[in-house]
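Exam review. A common question shows you a sequence with its structure tokens and asks you to describe the fold in words. Practice with the pair below. Do the first one on your own.
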Amino acid sequence: MTDTTKHHTPLHDIGDLDPEGLPSSRSLVKATLLAIVIAAVVLVLAVLPAEYGIDPTGLGRKMGLGALHEAEVASQTVTAETVARADTALQSKTLTLPLMPGQGLEIKAVMKTGQSFVFDWSAEGGPVHVDMHGNAADAAEDDFTSYWIEDALTGGRGTFRAPFDGHHGWYWKNNGNQMVTIKLQVSGFYDEIYMP
């Protein structure tokens, strides 16, 4: 047989409470003041360094909380600088270029300021001299800016963002005695890739 008896806790009116068992006004004031002091300590030691980068005691930095604020600031900065919108379609090109001993050749991309591509090239058969460079659209033929020059390289890869409107690319020269084959891959945003 199931016990259906319900146990009820009798309700008390506040007037029925023993005033001797309640905290005094003085102890309530002490507890309130203690809570305010603890909150102030947490604010100064943790919240200000982590949220606002304000660290008057230096403990926030030692506890690593300052890094939280620095990471947030860095992420906001990176977000603004990371995205570069393009007005042109994504393009990709792969070229194979034979280089006889003593021969040099150039490949360039027509780009506007801010356009970018990723590239990967290799020299099969031996190292080559390379000059990655660019010249402004209206510049004289011998007026150019070199970005990366090496005398004996068998490959290169990376990203490139055009610093100005113009023609940007590579000049390779085979200084060896054997034929070298340059294999170039370029993907990104540019108007055209051509051999001058």
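Now try the second one, then compare your answer with the model answer below.
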Amino acid sequence: MQYELRYQVIEPKRQTYQNVIDRFGDQPASRYLEATLDVEPRENFHYRPTWDQHRELYDADYTALKLTDPYSYTDPRQFYYTPYVTNRANLHDEFTKQMAYLEERELLAKLPTAWRTVLTTAILPLRHYESGAQMVSVGGARFAYGTSLEQCCTYAAFDRIGNAQMLSRVGIALGSGTGDLLQVAKREWLDSEHLQPLRRFTEEAMVTPDWAEGLVAVDLVDSLVYPVLYRELDEIALTSGAGAYSLFTQYLHTWFKDQRKWLDALIKAWAADEEHGAENREHLSRIVATWNPLAHEAATELARVVDHQLPDAGTVAALARTTAAAEQRWAQVTGGAA
């Protein structure tokens, strides 16, 4: 008996899920769109929050910044669970290799005294800032209206606690395998005068009722601190015998560039929204006017401490350049109102 094998192509009844078909028709769609569009419930809630009877469990009014259609915004990175986890696992592996290299050759222990002081008094305490920023992102993950927004906040929250853990690991390595320097960094965060503006900023951002305002406020600090401490100071480290500093800050610099991708796109979406754009630009201008002086004060105190230990670093001057660039960016977003 002979058998003849044949291929039979079975055409699918539809190319994608109904949530995508409702918007774009029946055509092949990315996994990101299938896992994102119109996933968050909008109706048929059983009860309103006992702590806020005027709003639904998922409600656009948890922020003054609104989108006519929350799904008009999508993550430029197209992150849903799998690509996000894969991307971050790769970054973590790279960081682990760099830390193993530093620890094997005791490069952190060989840092010049001034650089060790900078790490202890200015860099390691920032793990507490990252933890506070994580809570702000968690607020966005809970209260943002629309899956495309809340999942970006969720991933940012995971990233923030990861950043805090990275800094903790650097502190443990710098402390020869002990948590002694992390305790010192915590006391710096709680008591040192130069960190109190940033600590106050972080705590006030954490309790801001408007989740989007808290997110933008933290971004104002990020836009100053990350470029100055993890890019400008990194270049100084390479030429002043502190290559170890440059190695571990690569991760943080890379992460900040990735964070900018989705957050810049979201801010532009708010500002350009066809129905709420004008009001959104006014709100963004108010947020920048309220929080930017506090962010600048917090970053300036950090920069002064670094320059006190490393007079040739020019961190305050680098902060001035970064501030000018950030203000120009906001002026473009808000039409010159910020």
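Model answer, second protein: DSSP finds twelve helices and no strands in the chain. The two ends are 82 Å apart (CA to CA). Full marks require stating both points clearly.
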